[in-house]
Amino acid sequence: MSFTSAGLRWTDVYLVAGGRAISVCGDFLAATTLALVLQQSGHGGLAVSGLMIAAALPMALLTPLTGRLVDRADSRTLLVSVGLAQAAVCTALAFVSQPVVIIALVALLAAGLAVTQPTLQALLPRMVSRDDLARAGGIMLTAGQVGILAAPALAGFLVGRTGARLPLLLDAASYLALVGMALIVRTRRKGLIVDETTRVAKFRLRADRSLTVMTVAIAAVVAGVSAINVFDVFFIRETLGASATVFGLVTASWTVGSVLFTALSGRIPPRRLTIHVVLAVLAAACVAILAGSTVGAAGWLIPIWIVGGAFNGVLNVCMTVIIASRVPGEAHGRAFATVTAVVQGASLLGFLVAGPLIEQFDPRTLVAGTGVAGLLAALGCWPLVRRSRGGSEEPPAGPAGPAGTVGPAGPAGLPPVEASEQSLDDVYKRQGWT
Does 165 lie in the same domain as 27? Predict the structure, then answer.
């Protein structure tokens, strides 16, 4: 799985985490700024909806290209070239006002994110040992969440004081910070050099039944949480009669819980971060959502949402550790990109169905229904995760490989992976997956 064996590179971890925090803050700063610009210009909900879709759709559609690109190209070259391109696009955004042009440029920014995000995720296992991966993942995820938490308030302040241009130029500067980080870090993935004697590690998500089940369960819950982002406005403001200030506090509380507990989750031994833990955490988060639907005052949602966000933080660390441990290092880019695409697609689906539903049903009923549906999805996936005789989750079976290749023994006793396309198809047939 290509965990580093030449000593820990915690300096690189903190550099990447800092670069990610600045970049993510810039991304959400730009998204919030552009949404405010479109709303204030009188372009209506259709333009804002188009903006949100443009920001999310490339992540779901470009996986076949970006995953392979990340695994085959030099990581530093990718981060520098794509980061410079994103800085140029964001600079252009600061000087345009037509909604169609804005949406098109946002889609280009998101296409760049579809490359840089799996690149950074695939770098992490090369910086630390397997035992330290959870801690390192917690640091990086916490940094990104801090950026997400700070961006909306910063955007509102800057747009109100200076207009839209300065926040967008700051976002361009954040991409340059990411470029600078890429030039400084020592850890690199130099891509695959394929010749006649090289056996390239294959990756197809459904070859690993347990990983597939985990991804489907996460996607189901994420679709519901995305829909709740729409339901919340009506549930909190209309059903519970809360003020705009309380609404802002409630919406921030989920992220606060996630930030607080992502770092703490990094101290959990990686061997305990299993797919069954993921399903349990998903179920617990859905219980929090269900509890939130029963409150009579919006203030009660703040502690409940913090608890839900805490489970979200544990989930984030679990995903990083599980994917890095079950997939060979040469395929990390494709693995992270594929899982991200499935989750991102589910998020889009949640946004799309939320609008029509809120027109037909009571907001409290929709929030409760979302919690119940997510809980059933998590519990329903539980028996589908295969377990070995020793009680641990069974990794995908694979043919034996010679030393230095990807095979069932794997480095340091890590889960095996498939070494050929034919072996993957055989696994599908034996497990009943088509």
Answer: yes
